[in-house]
Prior knowledge:
By secondary structure, this protein is α/β, with parallel strands linked by helices. It is built from 20 helices and 15 strands. The longest helix is centred in the C-terminal third of the chain and has 21 residues, at 382-402. The chain is globular and about 70 Å long.
Amino acid sequence: MEPDELRHDELQEVALAALPERLQQAAARAGWTNLMPVQARAIPYMMAGRDIMVQSRTGSGKTGAFILPIINRIVPDKVTCQALILVPTRELARQVTAEAEMLCGDSGIRTVAVYGGVGYGQQMEGFRKGAHIVVGTPGRVLDHLLRKTLVLNDLQVLVFDEADRMLSMGFYPDMKRVQSYLPQKRLLGSMFSATFPPYVLRLANDFLHDPEFLSLSKDHVHVADTEHVYYKVPPMDKDRCLVRIIEVENPASAIIFCNTKNKVHYVSTVLQRFGYDADELSADLSQNARDGVMSRLRAGNLKFLVATDVAARGIDIPELSHVIQYEPPEDQEAYIHRAGRTGRAGAAGEAITLVSGFEEVGLKQIAKKYKIDLLERPVPTDADVEAIVSQRVTAMLEARLRARDSVEVERLQRFVGLGRALAQSEEELAIIAMLLDEAYTQTLRPALPVPPTGDKEPRGEGPRESRAGREGGKKGGRRRSRHKPRG
Length: 487
């Protein structure tokens, strides 16, 4: 849909004083005197029962944007789950739960957080007491659904918080299985995400009904949005900093630019040694080697391409989520060409630059010349990487365990004693770490699994299927996106 074809029934922002008394009391419990921009924009749509995708970054107040409308829909006397909020990490589950409890206060609305890596007892107790709002990671929510300790028959609201991170952590299969437990009725759905690359847009098409797009990027609304980020890194530690940044960012796909062919070879070798699906492209590569890289690119089987500007000229990679500049370009205009490779076709992307010493001065000159807003981020620490990788591995292994049949689970009992003994021995702990490393490294090789572009699995005429999905199924063709940028 072109900009001049946008629907003209957009809803106006709402002020705190215009909200129902019940929600004003909730805001007062949190000490809010005004709504933040994302809340003022999103709440009217959810209050009107319209599905939305909201592009808003961490710290913008998005949690309140969906908790307040949820409170408005909850019937406290009905002690069942009425709102499900899916999140990518246990930290976010705890954070969202804490804010929900603060806003709900003594209203009688109960919230429970469910996530992996801990026992089931406290979570099941929360269900028994009648949790109205469930905040959880897809894997652990699915576990409870399979155990029938969680039932969604009375669900009214479905929220995806930080959807891009959920997909990058490999939760798509679990999310699709959770979908089969949703009630056969129309739910109020919303999706909040810092970025909306194409695979997130397709997820929205799977779960939301004719969603509308709200972006809080600056003072205007648009789908395409490239964020420009830089990290100040020690010159002798730039390669390891790159690895840590990739671990935390977990790009779906990226081009990593270097200024020389020697640096291209070095960076691609480092990434391969750390287990990443990476290959290189430089001007002096043999034709056979170049053809091999290009065929992987065309097939979508290469996650990281490390290249010089010359080698990458004329190459177009669809659905590129990140451009990473291992070093700023020597030619200022090259920055625009590099960064322009992401954030295409109605998707959001990130342009990341690593700078050392005087490189920061050069980057800021580029930003000033082209009026680019640069955001500096701290380089992730080893502890940051350990925390996020641990959660990915836990989610992956729990999913594998769920997939095992009763005989395969019985077979595991042979090793329970050995596992317990190894975990208790500091000397033998390295064996467990090695096995976990091997399991995790296997996930780094293939490209990021994403939602299918067509109806590759039967979905029937369930209430969560969009109108476009039903029409596409009847015609036997691919579904067309119904996302509407909101102007």
